[in-house]
Write a structure and sequence with these properties.
The protein has about 100 residues and is mainly alpha-helical. The chain is about 70% helix and about 5% strand.
């Protein structure tokens, strides 16, 4: 799968569910590949969207993730630690509010 396609799926996943790995993965992908998020969002818009993808939903799911993060981290190996504030900055900088 193309790296932009993976990021598009992670954006959808962050909006649909509260799993730390989705936030962690997209942060590392954006850091490593310096992707143009507007092009990634164009891919998101081409996908079947069963429910709106919203930044508000992503923020709500991040709040849930923070309460369950330690439990999930004990079950999955994460190569390095990423500060919550860095992920929160990434979320704030997502260039959209709603995709339908």
């Amino acid at each position: 799968m193309d790296i932009k396609e993976i990021c598009a799926e992670k954006i959808r996943a962050m909006s649909d569910r509260a799993r730390y790995r989705d936030f962690y993965d997209i942060y590392l992908l954006l850091e490593k590949y310096k992707l143009n998020l507007k092009k990634v969002l164009d891919i998101v818009k081409q996908k079947e969207i069963r429910q709106p993808i919203t930044k508000t939903g992503i923020v709500v799911n991040w709040k849930v993730v923070k309460t369950q993060k330690e439990k999930e981290m004990s079950q999955v190996y994460y190569a390095r630690s990423i500060k919550d504030t860095v992920i929160e900055k990434m979320i704030r900088e997502l260039p959209f509010s709603k995709i339908e």
